[in-house]
Specification:
The protein is built from 9 helices and no strands. It is mainly alpha-helical and about 220 residues long. The chain has one domain: MetI-like (MetI-like fold, Orthogonal Bundle). α6 packs antiparallel against α7 and α8 runs antiparallel to α9. The termini are far apart.
């Protein structure tokens, strides 16, 4: 047991590298918030545009959604960071990770919002139009409020899953938790910094999971 503690919970090493883990903790928060805001906003916009049922536009939306749902987030990050510079587009590791994860979340969010819009009874669309509401007004006052409420549980779960992928930023030298923990492990030759990183992820994402559960309970339709 003492050997295990010395290997994975070496207190002097953990104290030495704690500032680096804290630094990565705040970078992870910034990246996760940027991904959530951008991804959900873009997904909602795409779903609304798709609801106008313009065939040519919807074709490109479907292609975008299918492509980014099919590609692993790590592959997208690598493409943005390593492939785009070959055509003159250069991005930092942070921007590459933010953009990649935002697009992946947007693809999933669009499908979730679109499913929510389809779940709104057709009769409510027709009733709204019959009292003089145009398409945008019907979306704003009738369809979207119901669709958003329906989509909260799956959207919350998908958002949490995507934000945990911020750890993939370590591959392109984003100074988030995992990157800092790996660097500390390389210098100390002891996995205790990785344990510290795991604790940091728990501190960060457990409240997010609990908040997601509360949101589902608070806003989901009562059965």
């Amino acid at each position: 047991m003492s050997k295990f503690a010395e290997t994975f919970f070496n207190w002097p090493i953990m104290v030495q590298y704690l500032p680096k883990i804290v630094e990565g903790f705040f970078v992870t928060i910034q990246l996760a918030l940027a991904v959530v805001v951008t991804g959900i906003a873009c997904g909602l916009v795409l779903a609304v545009v798709r609801s106008f049922r313009v065939r040519a536009v919807n074709f490109f939306i479907v292609v975008f959604v299918d492509a980014f749902r099919a590609l692993p987030p790590l592959v997208v990050i690598i493409l943005f960071y390593f492939a785009l510079p070959t055509i003159g587009i250069r991005m930092t590791g942070f921007v590459s990770t933010w953009l990649a994860l935002s697009l992946v979340l947007a693809a999933y969010a669009e499908e979730i919002f679109w499913a929510g819009l389809l779940a709104v009874p057709k009769g409510q669309w027709e009733a709204a139009r019959s009292i003089g509401l145009d398409t945008l007004q019907t979306l704003r006052y009738v369809a979207l409020p119901q669709a958003v409420r329906i989509t909260i549980p799956p959207l919350t779960n998908r958002t949490i899953a995507i934000t945990k992928n911020t750890a993939l930023g370590a591959v392109v030298a984003v100074g988030e938790i995992l990157y800092q923990a790996q660097g500390a492990y390389s210098f100390s030759y002891n996995p205790s910094p990785l344990t510290l990183g795991a604790i940091a992820y728990l501190i960060l994402f457990l409240p997010v999971v609990w908040f997601g559960r509360w949101v589902e309970t608070r806003f989901a339709w009562k059965r």
